[in-house]
Predict the 3D structure of the following.
Amino acid sequence: MAVLAERLDPELLSKLKPVTLAQDRLIEVPEVLKPLVPWGGLQRGTSVAFDGVGSWSLAMAVMAVALGGQAAGQAPRQEQEHTIDESSGGGWMAVVGVPSFNLAAAAGFGVRLDRLLVVEDPGPGRWATVVATLLESVDLVAVAPGVRVGDRDRRRLSARAREQESVLVHLDGGRTWPSLPDLTFQVEAQGWEGIGAGHGHLQRRRATVAVRGRRTGVASGGCEVWLPNEHGHLAPCLEAENLIMQGCATE
Amino acid sequence: MLVVWCPDWPVVAWGVPLDEPAAVVVANRVIACSPAARAEGVSVGIRRRDAQGRCPDLAILERDVDREGRLFEPVAVALEAITPEVEVAGPGLVGFPTRGPSKFFGGDELLTDEVLAVVEPVLAGRGVCRIGVADGVFAARLAARAVRTNIGNAVVIPPGESASFLAPIAIGEIGNPELADVLGRLGLTTLGAFASLAAADVVGRFGQAGQIAHRLAKGDDEHPPDLRRPAPDMAVTWQFEPAAIRIDRCAFAAKALADELHATLSANGLACVRVAIEAETESGDVHVRLWRHEGALSAAALAERARWQLDGWLHIARAARQVGSGGSTAAYDHADAAEPDDVGVGAGIVRLSLIPDEVVPATGRQLGFWGGRAERADEVTRAVARIQGLLGPESVSVPEWRGGRGPAEQISLIPAAAVDLGEERVATKPHFVADPWPGRLPMPAPAKVSADPAAIDLLDAAGGSIGVTGRGELTSWPAVVVGKMRRRTVQEWAGPWPADERWWDVMAHRRRARMQVVLDDGSAHLLVIEDGTWWLEASYH
């Protein structure tokens, strides 16, 4: 059997494989986060939570890459000509019941506003229905329900996300979700730069990101990032690494 | 072809008297202004701030396309007294073929007098109209633009002289900025110079777009007559049961019909350049109106035109009833429309049809050019429609850029029902808002903006409260922020950035100052002071 498999054309083999599982179809994440995330991307059909001070900024950066906007953290915000990008589609996302989610900041991280729907106030009894409807057609649905989600709604929404291969994003760290989200990005803000006692302004923030998976446990260590860097993007914090390396060299 | 053009229709639709300065502004640029404003130096295309600088009393109006469409219908109705073949090109622009009417009234000049006589009472002194007569629609439009009011209200180009009329006109009028730019750089600065090129050369170099432009420049119609085919029977119809009297119900049907018609046409490789919108009322009246569009009507454009048309008819029916009951004497009401619910029985629409009247082979300007993208947008549009059915038409919105200083002012949400999700929307691109906005907060923007800001106290080390002086300086050194429950030490701070907004307007005047603080828990916030009270406006979450 094994011999036969070796002799077959790899292209044919890939066709012979069973239907692609949802977990094989990944949603792209920013380059910096790839080592932290199991499989190197967000699995479709799962739920993802962002927790800690600065987590909304991280969520925005992740959304930007997921929707296929200009890659955040690369060259300072140049107006890229979207020619190929435009035709290849890219994802859609929706924000439900989070009026304080600042879209201007999201756009600053590279989220494409032409791929964004907003339901500001879904009303108390309709929240789950609206989210379920959106999970059917868009790739990411960002929520922060003010009250705890019932277990029935959780099952319904999880099933819907799985079927439709979309991702539910909890902006409240998954606190209102009755079970643990599949993936939690834990952000710890380390301090701002550019601001002093009465001078300058907020420019960039250093933060550490750790990832906790429901099934995989805590990923090894965290990583230090600029959230945002001086260009308003998510970027690896190279300075910190350099400092450590210099420290090693002097020892 | 005779074209009636009502200049600055967006302003006229608001019912602004001619002697009041007003302007309609889109994306910070004036797109239309009243004659009074023009006399003060306001012109189309200048920035809002410049316009207000030239004319401080200028009333700034938002654009309301639906209202423009609705209120233009009476003009088309008035022209029906002259000819049944009235075709609307858009709010403010309507035309009809002159051959029959011109003979009937004894010449083009007499015809224009007649048109003026029927249109002016409808405008009721709130707007002006200009008339152009020429061989083709394009030339007639430019003729209407060439009207100088001190000479008359009409410019008539004799038959066969359209080309010589167009010859000295600048190439920029061709209606295709990209092509006009290239032609200008090639030294072809007038329509005449472009028209004198051989058609084969133009097609060889510029393709389809060049061919159309070349035809226009020669004074011909956009599509050569032999290309037009009699429209196959592709009409789509919607029956209302019970009769529809509310525009939202009609609009829903119009959208569905437009999608259906568009799908049928594109399956046959056709695009529609002129469509007849036909409605039958409960009392058996049948209304028909032709709508023309250069290029081709997309599904969304079709639906939009049908909505304007139906809204216009319902509006006229309502106004007529009010006249009948002695309620209002105006032919149509310029004030805000009354609630549609108060419409009595008898005006309801029982049938709506969209009939493609003139079709051309589709050339790829159609939606769906990007393949998957349009399909995906359709799927999203369906989800939006379901949620609108659940929560109401305004419940789903999409963001657009607006100018502004504060974090919450830079983006505004508009109902998703008002846009076509499959089309490219320029207002969602960051460069949509022309710089600069002096006093805008430095990047990055705070991720979380309080929907309901909380009042806080900002104290100095001695516990005294802190204000901002008229010169934009803090009265003391901030040390502590006291919120409802918590008390935090200020570690770093910057600002204040004062914003003195709309000082020219007593009602809307706001004087605020913002500052950034970093607290001892590492969190950063944006505070704003107004009338001596500090608010937690946003957090850098």
The CA atoms of residues 54 and 205 of chain A lie 9 Å apart. The domain at 21-73+88-192+201-250 of chain A is CATH 3.40.50.300 (Rossmann fold). Helices of chain A lie at 2-7, 10-16, 55-66, 84-87, 103-108, 127-137, 151-164, 238-250.
